[in-house]
Amino acid sequence: MTAVLIVVVVVLAIAGALIYVGSRVPSQEEDPLLARMNEFTQRGEQISLEKLEMSQSIRDRVIYPLLKKFGDIATHFTPQNALQDVTRKLELSGKSGWIDAPMFLALRFVVAAVFAVVSFVLFTFTIVKQPLSSAILYSMLGTALGFYFPQMWLDGEIKKRQTAVQKAMPDALDLLTVCVEAGLGFDAAMSNVAEKWENELSLAFGRAIREMQLGKVRRDALKSMAERIDLNEMTSFVAAIIQSEQLGVSMSKVLKIQADQMRMRRRQLAEEKAHQAPIVMLLPMVGFIFPSIFIVLMTPAILRMMKVPLFNGTG
């Protein structure tokens, strides 16, 4: 039994480390190595490679390098189109700054292994003990669940990011309109939004501004931003900006029209979700509320019926 507890503790420790890696997501603009070098420089201390390495967290010193090595091995057995699909989804989720496609593939295999071990131990040595064949079957199911769990998490992060951008766009376009009407250029207005806000949309604006500062044409930078978000509202906004630039239309008028359309779209989505609320609430009501009401209402009647000789078997 002691060996089983040791295995369970080790597996839980690995799972906790993976959860820690996923929750402690560094900023896309932050370079941990550069930050630590700047910290030592400001202190006036002598920097050595060993000291700099030991000053990093366990995540940066151990977990990330291991995932990187596992990822390099996994790429040899993964089709190129699958790697491109993972890279694309990481871009859409906004997580490409801290994990790449090989590391994500390695994370999927590691989580699958953890789920497999936990499932096997759970159904072999605990109070829910099952025959060996059943334990192996549950372990295989746990492996499949663990392999697809990171993918489901990534899809959820993509949806969450797109929803955040969609909610922030009307207010951002209002701020862009005010800045443009005040005399700022469109690039300066985008930079102002990126500096004053801290959300997914401002991060996207900031990345587009940096690309333009590095020499990328505004049209191409905006198109790349729309591709990284993959949202109809953002694609429409970028197309309107590019078209106004080509036709010489007033930028402030275009931004006002876009802001009104985005606000109307946001209102329509809110109304649509409000209409869907009764359907969404139906399952919890049927599964949890109605049985409770049934028990409360029927229990007194059942107790009275049990006292009647015809039903209690004494009559």
Describe what this molecule looks like in 3D.
The structure is a single chain. This protein folds into two domains: 2-158, no CATH class; 164-267, Receptor-associated Protein, CATH 1.20.81. It is built from 13 helices and no strands. The protein has helices at 2-23, 32-43, 49-54, 58-75, 80-93, 101-125, 132-181, 186-196, 200-213, 218-229, 232-247, 251-307, 309-312. Helix 7 crosses helix 8, helix 7 runs antiparallel to helix 12 (251-307) and helix 11 (232-247) packs antiparallel against helix 12.
Q: How would you summarize this macromolecular structure in one to three sentences?
A:
The protein has 315 residues and is an all-alpha fold.
Shape, per Cα inertia axes: flat
* Radius of gyration, whole Å: 28 Å
- N-to-C span: 55 Å
Give the count of helical stretches. Answer: 13
List the helices and strands and how they pair.
Blueprint: H1 2-23, H2 32-43, H3 49-54, H4 58-75, H5 80-93, H6 101-125, H7 132-181, H8 186-196, H9 200-213, H10 218-229, H11 232-247, H12 251-307, H13 309-312
Helix pairs in contact: 1-6, 4-6, 5-6, 5-7, 6-7, 7-8, 7-12, 8-9, 9-10, 10-11, 11-12
Jot down its keywords:
single chain, 315 residues, mainly alpha, Receptor-associated Protein, 83% helix
